[in-house]
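Ticket 4471: requesting a sanity check on a complex prediction with magnesium ion. Repro inputs:
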Amino acid sequence: MVRGRQVVIELTDLTFAYSVADPIFAGLDHRFEPGTSTALVGRSGSGKSTLLYLIGLMLSPTSGNIAIDGIAADALADWQRAEMRARLMGFVFQDALLDPARSIIDNVLEGALYNDVAGGDTREEALALLSRFGVTVDSERRPGQLSGGQAQRVALCRALLGEPAIVLADEPTGNLDDMSADIVWDALLGYAAAGATVVIATHDRQRAALCTSIVEVGHADPA
Ligand code: ADP
Ligand code: MG
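Returned structure tokens:
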């Protein structure tokens, strides 16, 4: 169900600081396995999003390593990191972040356009995903009229299109009604069970407990 081979993410002695004096976390070791979902939990400001963006190769470690599929990401050029991200990863952010100037279907196809694989089959796949997640409005319309829950389900379709080996989600159900939150959460856990490596930053400990494993981010003792 997941495209290509399955991908391990390995963090080794990972330290990250926005300012030198005050690292967000230090010496973090963790291995994220295919077929698992991992919740990154911690209080607000503990560094959950930061860790997710490091894994997503959108930030670089202050020290330590991130290996994805056995490749040390810090050794890669920016374009190689972007290529790896496009090929292996899907993202879901808290506020869907759909492009208001593009149709719903083009929002779902966005990553595929980047990957240069937006042919007829990909369009069919996008429509099938929208249908599967109950987005029943005309997909040629702009997303402006969508409810938050519908918009996030569109964002979920965008993340799952092309069946990436890794899905990263940042507070994906933060602003959603329970029904949409259940749909999004179940989809992420189901996608992990199908062989993907799924990492979800969340402050929702009840939902986090449904993941295969939990990583506590940040200092154990709040300052
Ligand atoms: P969480 O997602 O757990 O709420 P974040 O990863 O967003 O935490 O933030 C961790 C800490 O880093 C917070 O103290 C936040 O204010 C700080 N921070 C986040 N982004 C930046 C940035 N671009 N520059 C400087 N500090 C930042
Ligand atoms: Mg956050």
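Notes from triage: The chain has one domain: 9-216. Leaving this open until the requester confirms.
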